[in-house]
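Posting this for the archive.
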Amino acid sequence: MSLRLSTVILPYRRWSEGGRQAWQRAEELGFHTAYTYDHLSWRSFRDGPWFGAVPTLTAAAAVTDRLRLGTLVTSPNFRHPVNLAKELISLDDISGGRVTLGIGAGGTGFDATALGQEPWTPRERADRFAEFVALLDQLLTEDSVSYEGDFYSAHEARNIPGCVQRPRLPFAVAATGPRGLRLAARYGRAWVTTGDPKLYENGTPEQSVQAIRGQVGKLADACAEIGRDVAGLDKILLTGFTPDRGRPLESLDAFVDFAGRHQELGFTEIVVHWPIPDSDFAADEKVFEQIAMEALAQLH
């Protein structure tokens, strides 16, 4: 399968002050998908502007024609499957079937406490994630759903007419642990990783590649458990969180080398952050655009 190149546009700019232009430019540059984070606030951006993912993607759908759109990622931290399903069906309709839902278990950041609750334990996050994904799958594929679970309920929740994409819009499941990988194998059109977070500070690029190779192997095992061929599952690497950090965006050659090493591991999609000055995602915009337009030709 040929490699695809996508981007993630953080929702920190007003739509009228560069927000709209970024999404339109992503389409012009030929990116496969443009994603955004689905957070209430995030890390160093917490005390600055930050807009909602679904309204942003809806606006992006209205000003683009071919670009796929998605979250990277949505989590149960502040979402409920019933409300989310209705929003996703609406977004899929408005976009003409161009939406991918990136979905993960969430974490312990600001989103985990914004609704006034205590952060969930790793066990509870995993338990909630499993129920969240299963119920969301049901809501997006059935006209009426009633469900009583340990964490979520639905009572005759109607979702007519359903997604434009059938049987529903695709899930890209972010996971590295065994339970999450099983969810990716069962429900995912794609699997997402950012690498091994333990290597970010002091690891090497070589160690990162080895760790990711191990994750791909565990994904293959999870697929084999249910009789699924792992080759049929897209594999997405969200860059910027491996020991390489921003180096792959320093030059076209650096990116081609980085992407090629991960393509050899079976990755079908590489996602790069749209440059943000004075942040962890700072990059030369001219180099970024050169990578968008020229890199894939050297990797096929």
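The chain is about 40% helix and 15% strand. The chain has a mean pLDDT of 97.
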